[in-house]
Write a structure and sequence with these properties.
The protein has 3 helices and 6 strands, in the order ββααββββα. By secondary structure, the chain is of the alpha+beta class. It has one domain. The strands form 2 sheets. Strands 3-4-5-6 form a 4-stranded antiparallel β-sheet. The protein has a two-stranded antiparallel ribbon with strand order 1-2. α2 runs antiparallel to α3. It is globular, with a radius of gyration of 17 Å. The relative contact order is 0.17.
């Protein structure tokens, strides 16, 4: 999983100063990180807490329902999926004649548990470092 964290001080004014770029097949992971947590490290701490519980064997898996994107996590992998994948009232086949192509990379992605942990630790460290710089 390739990613890059970006801080643009010029966009801080409109609340978009922190951004992420992920490889094409993991774009939804970046969306999940920004849309569900952003720079709120208190919210992200809950992810670290249940990841620790999974590592310690206290729980076997965790599901976090997000506003737009959800996380399924077990000891081996993290699966990030758009909630729209599970909406039964919408039949996507009705759009087949519109010549639209559904890009599944935008709806679902997975990675290993350790890679996921490394990524969110790197995000946490990036936010902390940049908040320090911003407050100077």
């Amino acid at each position: 999983m390739e990613y890059e964290f970006i801080r643009d001080p010029d966009l801080d004014v409109v609340g978009k100063g922190f951004q992420v770029e992920f490889s094409h097949e993991h774009r939804i992971v970046g969306r999940w990180l920004i849309e569900e947590f952003g720079t709120d490290l208190n919210e992200l701490k809950s992810v670290f807490n249940f990841m620790s519980a999974i590592e310690a064997g206290k729980i076997t898996e965790q599901f976090v329902l997000g506003k737009e994107i959800s996380l399924k996590l077990n000891r081996f992998e993290a699966l990030i999926e758009a909630n729209a994948l599970h909406q039964k009232e919408h039949d996507l086949s009705v759009y087949a004649d519109d010549a639209l192509e559904l890009d599944e990379n935008d709806l679902s992605a997975g990675c290993g548990f350790e890679d996921f942990l490394d990524m969110i630790e790197a995000w946490r460290d990036f936010v902390i470092d940049n908040n320090r710089k911003r407050s100077r």
